[in-house]
Specification:
Pfam families: DUF7935. InterPro entries: DUF7935. There is one protein chain. This protein is mostly helical and 175 residues long. The chain has 6 helices and no strands. It has helices at residues 2-67, 69-76, 83-100, 110-132, 140-151, 154-171. α3 (83-100) packs antiparallel against α4 (110-132) and α4 packs antiparallel against α6 (154-171). It is rod-shaped.
């Protein structure tokens, strides 16, 4: 009986150790395969999303350029007669530009999108403050001058800081 038990241990113990070693090797191999598959999936997703993210940064840069006070005024002053008309056109255009580019927030950081929205709010506020200082029936060029005077300082700094933030965040895609 002792010999049978001893023989059984002599056979089962090495077989168990071999089975355990095979299990560990197979598990390590499968884990490696899983990690490689996840990396491949991530890499493919990055390749597909990268052009969309770059396009979002380009569009936000263009949005900020279009929202600069000088660009807004150059596009709109010749189209209107009174300061009230200019105020309404400018505020509507600011809103339209931001709404048109709202989908870009999916591809940029929340902080950056909040900064872009802050620029639009500051610009709308600037237009409204300048309009409050000019008669509604005054020529549009008077409101344009007031906006130019008010644009010096905080709004232009905020605009430039936000444009720089867009550029910096886009550069981080390569670093």
């Amino acid at each position: 009986m002792y010999d049978v038990f001893s023989d059984l241990i002599k056979v089962l113990l090495p077989a168990g150790l071999v089975l355990y070693a095979v299990f560990q090797v197979v598990r390590a191999f499968l884990n490696k395969q899983l990690i490689e598959k996840q990396q491949e999936t991530r890499s493919e997703a990055f390749r597909q999303v990268l052009p969309l993210r770059l396009q979002a940064y380009e569009r936000l840069s263009l949005l900020l350029e279009r929202l600069s006070p000088n660009a807004l005024l150059l596009r709109n002053v010749p189209q209107v007669v009174t300061s009230l008309d200019l105020q309404q056109v400018l505020v509507a255009e600011i809103r339209e530009e931001v709404h048109h580019n709202a989908a870009q927030q999916m591809y940029v950081s929340n902080e950056l999108w909040d900064r872009v929205r802050l620029v639009s709010h500051e610009l709308t506020s600037l237009v409204n403050k300048a309009a409050a200082e000019v008669s509604p029936d005054a020529p549009a060029i008077e409101l344009a001058r007031k906006i130019g005077e008010h644009a010096v300082g905080r709004p232009s700094e905020l605009w430039q800081e936000t444009l720089n933030a867009v550029k910096n965040e886009a550069r981080q895609l390569w670093e």
